[in-house]
Description:
Blueprint: H1 3-15, H2 19-31, H3 36-52, E1 54-62, E2 67-76, H4 78-91, H5 105-118, E3 122-134, E4 137-140, H6 145-152
Antiparallel strand pairs: 1-2, 2-3, 3-4
Helix pairs in contact: 2-3, 3-5, 4-5
Amino acid sequence: MTQRGAVERYLKKYKTLDSEVLVDLENIVQSENLNKEQEKKYRDILKKQYKDLTYDILEEEYDDEFSYVKVKITVYDYYKANYDSALYLENNRSEFYDDDGNYDVNKYIDFRLNNLSNTTNRIDYTIVLTVAKENNNYVVVEPSESDLKKIHGIYNYELE
């Protein structure tokens, strides 16, 4: 297997919802404060992101220890959907009140999850994955936090 092949294998794990990816997905879901129904919907949203991820390997660079594979990925723009949801909440908070006039976080979470679920906007990112040789096999080194956020579609590109 080549360095390029290691990157393709890594990204295909997302597209095929490999068991390793599903464990990570479950950790992401559990890190949110969601009820059971919301957890299921969020799982489905993340699975859609992974299955629909597309990629194109742009270039490869090598040094004595590592290989660096530059990849253009295309994912759903969940960052914008989350941002738009928060902006809507800010301007329309009373829509998320319960019958007693108190803010109901679950109403907002349902609204945000619906926005994520209905997102069709896609965005391109360029990531650089590092590949190392371990036991005569090429493997992708754990990506940076920002590259993982790009894969998930939640990277805050407004900070660039």
